[in-house]
TrEMBL record:
InterPro entries: GrdX-like
UniProt organism field: Pseudoflavonifractor gallinarum
The name this protein goes by in its record: GrdX family protein
NCBIfam families according to UniProt: GrdX (NF038093)
Length: 125
């Protein structure tokens, strides 16, 4: 499994358990990196906009992909492009984690962590 994140909490827990690529930047930067990986033949394992937090509200995003690259997966490509289009429709409230107030930053990081933890932890045990 390949995990792409800009969330330090996710990196700390999963960095030694799977292949992890840490992205410096905001959630849109993560999605662009994921899109590039999909173009290289990686398949999405989690939805790029998982959770009920609006994409323009949170600076954190974590997405799991298959670590083996193959043929271009059109469903993954459609999902990541749709996610990026949603993000383009709404200007982000916080571009990066450090742009958010400390208490909000911690809450957003925790929400992202719990979403990805619930999705991938069972597969890593």
């Amino acid at each position: 499994m390949l995990l792409v994140t800009n969330n330090e909490k996710v990196r700390e827990k999963f960095g030694s358990l799977c292949t992890l690529q840490y992205v410096e930047g905001g959630h849109v930067d993560v999605l662009i990196h994921v899109r590039d990986l999909v173009h290289q033949g990686h398949k999405l394992l989690t939805h790029p906009l998982a959770g009920s937090v609006k994409p323009n509200e949170t600076p954190f995003r974590s997405v799991a992909l298959d670590d083996a690259s193959g043929a271009l997966d059109l469903e993954s490509l459609e999902l990541i492009e749709a996610a990026l289009n949603v993000c383009r429709q709404f200007p982000p409230r916080f571009h990066r984690g450090e742009d958010a107030p400390a208490d909000m930053r911690e809450d957003f990081a925790e929400i992202d962590f719990r979403l990805i933890d619930g999705a991938i932890a069972p597969q890593l045990q």
